[in-house]
Specification:
It contains 9 helices and 6 strands. The strands form 2 sheets. The chain has a 4-stranded antiparallel sheet, covered by helices on one side. Strands 5-6 form a two-stranded parallel ribbon. β5, α5 and β6 form a beta-alpha-beta unit. The longest helix is centred in the middle third of the chain and has 32 residues. The termini are far apart.
Length: 228
């Protein structure tokens, strides 16, 4: 009801000034469905945030959908395929790493959710890294594929301090606190990296995967060379 009250979806659909992509997970096929700006509706927004343990699946044109984070959190490739920008900025609020072993049922479930929702992002980043390496090695045509500058504003240091119950905290003071944290991390990133936008990546994908992508990329190039 609140989303319906405050968002004019007709205006969203008819505003060509900015791309908008919202993903949801098709319950029947397990695949991500990416809704473009002109397709976005109240049901699409509700589907994209539908955690099946809390809400009923949202049906769109007879198809049931759950939270898009299971298969794309977020889906990155629309920004490559449908944007002229050379940069992708990821705002990371879900910790990629959380030191220590969770012991309670709630903490275990919380960490499982973090791993699950980060998995789709890491998969996309690994693929982008591989594409970059294949382009550098001449195995992919630069006219068909392009190198993207990847950036990440990472607020996870502060997110680590929040326990699982914080995800259900909708108190206004807490939401303002999160907003202020986001602004502080964005200001810090911009101060350090603004001059690198449209110039180079500030997110080291190779370091993110501990060198695994580098080995994978080299093997792919060698395999393609052998086939050639």
């Amino acid at each position: 009801d609140l989303v319906d009250e405050f968002v004019d979806f007709d205006k969203v659909a008819n505003c060509p000034d900015m791309g908008l992509y919202i993903s949801a997970t098709n319950v029947e096929t397990g695949r991500a469905r990416v809704f473009h700006r002109e397709e976005v509706s109240l049901d699409v927004v509700m589907a994209s945030a539908c955690l099946p343990n809390m809400f009923k699946a949202v049906e769109i044109d007879g198809v049931p959908y759950w939270d898009g984070g299971y298969m794309g959190n977020p889906v990155l490739f629309p920004f490559i395929d449908h944007s002229t920008s050379a940069d992708i900025m990821i705002v990371q609020i879900n910790p990629l790493m959380r030191p220590g072993t969770p012991k309670t049922a709630r903490d275990i479930q919380n960490r499982l959710n973090e791993i699950t929702f980060n998995g789709s992002l890491l998969r996309d980043l690994r693929t982008i890294d591989l594409i970059h390496r294949l382009i550098d090695d001449g195995a992919l045509n630069e006219e068909e594929y392009r190198v993207m500058n990847m950036h990440m504003i990472d607020g996870c240091e502060d997110m680590l301090e929040l326990d699982a119950s914080s995800k259900m905290n909708s108190e206004w003071a807490f939401l303002v606190h999160l907003r202020d944290l986001g602004r502080a991390h964005a200001d810090k990133w911009l101060t350090a990296n603004f001059d690198k936008i449209e110039v180079e990546s500030t997110l080291d994908l190779s370091a993110l995967f501990g060198g695994v992508s580098a080995v994978h990329g080299a093997n792919m190039v060698e395999l393609r060379a052998r086939k050639g």
